[in-house]
Amino acid sequence: MSKLTDKVALVTGGSRGIGAAIAKRLAADGATVAITYAKDASAASAVVKTIELDGGKAIAIQADAADVEAVKRAVETTVATFGRLDVLVNNAGTAIPKPFEEATLEEMNRVIDINIRGVYVATQAALKHMKSGGRIISIGSAVGERVAAPGLVPYAGTKGAVKMFTQALAREIGSRGITVNNVQPGPIDTDLNPASGDWAVPQKAATALDRYGRVDEIAAMVAFVAGPESSYITGANLTVDGGMNA
Hints:
The chain has a single domain, classed as NAD(P)-binding Rossmann-like Domain (Rossmann fold, 3-Layer(aba) Sandwich). The chain has helices spanning 17-28, 41-53, 68-82, 105-127, 153-173, 200-206, 215-226, and strands at 8-11, 32-37, 58-62, 87-90, 135-139, 179-185, 237-240. It is built from 7 helices and 7 strands, in the order E-H-E-H-E-H-E-H-E-H-E-H-H-E. By secondary structure, the protein is α/β, with parallel strands linked by helices. The mean pLDDT is 96.
């Protein structure tokens, strides 16, 4: 029997990169999975098909993480479709790397709306349905603890907020048997932050392992936190960064 058999998970921003890897890993561990996507329906469909070909169950729901009502609907659709919700992975996020003094208010608002407000809204909606044993897992960032490269001021601020949100909520709902944790990736090779990109050289150099991480390395940590063996871990910020913050 797989670790997550009979569990239902919702992964926001699950059509590509870290989110897609998380969705596939949770499904491989036995969970039924819903993913949200902002625009790319074909990419989301590909993730669902991959899960189904491996014998799992999954659906994709269109919901921009900056759209409050869409996020709420995604949670309700997941529960209406699968009957319950056990694991929420707040993965949807964005960054607009540039010097802070050049950042526009529109850009800053976009980062805040997705990285903070989207997390708040999805979590609040999910908690209406979660029972003891539930898991709230956010994908923060190593720069929420320590900023090793310039150009990430608004992003780092939002990920610092996710860190404290995690710790505060863990205190508030621990008595319900629901854990709340924050997985903090370092530089991971994705479309948004490719290992061959302009911003890659200083990030790679800042790690102890002298390499970018892989999406499956983040998915492995999320799968552990979602599973039964992590039942005494809550309010934790679990950094997976190749030693960048060492």
